[in-house]
Amino acid sequence: MSTFIAAFLFLLVFFLLMSIGYLLKRKAVQGSCGGLGALGIAKACDCDEPCDRRKARDAKEAKRQEYLAKHRIL
Questions:
Q1: Under the phi-then-psi rule, with left for phi > 0, alpha for psi from -120 to 50, and beta for the rest, what region is 27?
Q2: In terms of domain of life, where is this protein from (predicted)?
Q3: What DSSP designation does 28 have?
Q4: Biggest alpha carbon distance in the chain?
Q5: pLDDT value, residue 34
Q6: 26: alpha, beta or left, given left = phi > 0 and alpha = psi -120 to 50?
Q7: How far apart (Å, rounded) are the C-alpha atoms in residues 44 and 68?
């Protein structure tokens, strides 16, 4: 029973540290090969025109990057 409790606590601490890392970096967990990003593919579909949700998300990210560049401390 003590082995089970130790393993559970280890996994709990591991997931806690992973969640803290995600909150601080705002970067999703990805595989070691990088997935589609390693191939230079920005999206899973091969549409010529991105959907409205994708356009809105890209615009929001561009605005966020502009804000971060403008208010950079260093």
A1: beta
A2: Bacteria
A3: -
A4: 57
A5: 61
A6: left
A7: 28
